[in-house]
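Hi V.,

Quick status before I head out on leave. The structure for the redesign project is tokenized and pasted below; the design run finished overnight.
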């Protein structure tokens, strides 16, 4: 027995069918991109903690497996040809195992427990996966996903500083950060940073500096 539809009902059905077909065609026209993870290979015999900072040691492309991954080590490996820092994802990486890096722009980073505030600069700690005061990240605030986790962004801009005591040429010393104010800059004596003097002359104490993030560390240049 044939089904008889009223004209208005038939019109609504046809409009609905047309809408479905148009949406299907639109979905077919829009390319769907799946972003590949950034794989990490732990070259160390120690476990990389979740959200730990690591140093890139090389990049490997497996022809057979079709996988590309970054070889990483615990900072700082001064024999490495690279000094690029990346941040591990939410799972620890076993010794000589594989993991996935965070892509940013906002990173969760595990610290060594140093009291931090928004706008502090943090970076890799020598012989550790945990961040401390340094370069090249800037703290946005705490993250309650776990203890000693902060949210931070990469910040490679220079900043003003002040030497606490003399820094001999070719050595490291402690410095204060100078923060911008309405009238210029003021010295923040609440936190001390480490900076390298790579200039040919010594830097005396209480001198104004420009602190440049270079290869994951601050380099101090005296403002003359």
């Amino acid at each position: 027995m044939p089904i008889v539809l009223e004209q208005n009902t038939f019109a609504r059905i046809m409009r609905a069918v047309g809408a479905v077909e148009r949406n299907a065609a639109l979905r077919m026209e829009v390319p769907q991109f799946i972003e590949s993870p950034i794989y990490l290979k732990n070259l160390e015999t120690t476990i990389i903690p979740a959200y730990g900072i690591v140093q890139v040691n090389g990049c490997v492309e497996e022809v057979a497996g079709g996988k590309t991954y970054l070889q990483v080590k615990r900072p700082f490996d001064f024999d490495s040809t690279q000094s690029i820092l990346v941040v591990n994802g939410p799972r620890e990486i076993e010794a000589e195992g594989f993991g996935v890096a965070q892509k940013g722009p906002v990173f969760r980073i595990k610290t060594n427990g140093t009291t931090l505030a928004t706008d502090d600069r943090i970076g890799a700690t020598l012989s550790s996966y945990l961040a401390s005061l340094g370069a090249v990240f800037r703290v946005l605030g705490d993250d309650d996903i776990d203890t000693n986790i902060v949210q931070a962004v990469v910040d490679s801009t220079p900043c003003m500083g002040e030497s606490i005591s003399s820094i001999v040429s070719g050595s490291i010393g402690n410095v204060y950060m100078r923060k911008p104010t309405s009238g210029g800059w003021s010295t923040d004596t609440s936190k001390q940073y480490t900076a390298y003097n790579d200039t040919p002359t010594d830097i005396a104490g209480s001198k104004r500096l420009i602190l440049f993030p270079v290869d994951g560390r601050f380099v101090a240049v005296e403002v003359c």
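Above is the designed sequence. The chain has a mean pLDDT of 90.

G. will cover questions while I'm gone.

Best,
W.
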